[in-house]
Amino acid sequence: MTGGAGAVRHFLDLGDAGADDIAAMIADAIDRKAARVDKPKGVADADAPLAGRVLALVFEKNSTRTRVSFDIAMRQLGGSVLILDSGSSQLGRGETIADTARVLSRMVDAIMLRTDDHTKIEEMAAHASVPVINGLTDRSHPCQIVADLLTVIEHGKALPGLEVAWFGDGNNVLHSILEAAGLFKFNVRVSTPAGYEPDPAFVELARAGGSVVTLTQDAHAAARGADVLVTDTWISMGQADAAEKKAAMVPYQVNTALMALAKPDAVFLHCLPAHVGDEVSEDVFEGPQSIVFDEAENRIHAQKSVLLWSFGLLGI
Ligand code: CP
Ligand code: NVA
Predict the structure, then answer these.
(1) Active-site residue, 141 included
(2) How far is the CA of 172 from the centre of ligand 1 (A)?
(3) Structure confidence by residue, pLDDT tens digits, 292-313
(4) Which residues of 14-49 are buried (b: 16+ CB within 10 A; e: fewer)?
(5) How close is the Cα of 136 to the center of ligand 1, in Å?
(6) Euclidean distance between CA atoms 217 and 199, whole angstroms
(7) Is 283 annotated as a binding residue?
(8) Going from the N-terminus, what domains does the chain have, and what CATH number goes with each?
(9) What are the pLDDT digits (tens) for 102-154?
């Protein structure tokens, strides 16, 4: 938790909100999504709860979904955004995160940051007097996982006891899945090559919350009887495109042979962008169990809830 009662609500990781408030986010996302099915995407929700509020989107890495979903989310909530890329702002010329946080806090109502080192977003939050939202760091991607939980629930699956199987690199997305597992009591079978396991701190966090986490190098064992199969790029942003790493990942491709081991109603998730033919085969990616485009759309609905929570309009 980065803030106490009355403190600015930063959303650096799922634990900053906790299970009850994330459940409230998901419920609100479902309601708001249902209430606007016939509206053009840029039209505000009837209550426009963030009218007059401005969100700064700060990017030190590329983005499509995070950028567009936060922009559309703010429009639908009645607010607006401005976008700062490191290449075209003073951040890219070495202005400190601390000074950027203090200046932006005087000019906008909230800040979303996508960056590399997680300590940078902690520094942003430490110096900002407005909410700071993690739009992905090397360590975690909590906004993605709010959307993923929403997507799984929409597809009729209850979270407690769910068997989630991860394939490939033990990365930032997996870390946030593990944090969610501890909060919502679902189990995670993590299959990675040796040397690419997740940070043990996230495994411990999940287990401390009551999740059963299995670490294995056997992708088939992870897939057997799973409810949800998840993967991500083998090479995350900022990592070297190492041939050695890619070679180690090959047995972890989610393909029809792997899907066949899961429950018949299992679903496939991928945060995107996908590298079809690497971490997922084309037939799975395009197949009936793939819900990746629902997942992508849900970034909008999830981000609206995260924003409302950050502004103290949702949750406890
Ligand atoms: N899934 C995700 O965060 O996508 P972008 O990198 O396009 O924002
Ligand atoms: N693990 C990926 C996620 C992209 C949304 C990365 O960090 O590049």
Answers:
(1) yes
(2) 12
(3) 999 999 999 999 999 999 999 9
(4) bbbbebebbbbbbebbbebbeebeeeeeeebbeeeb
(5) 8
(6) 16
(7) no
(8) 14-141+299-310 (3.40.50.1370), 156-290 (3.40.50.1370)
(9) 999 999 999 999 999 999 999 999 999 999 999 999 999 999 999 999 999 99
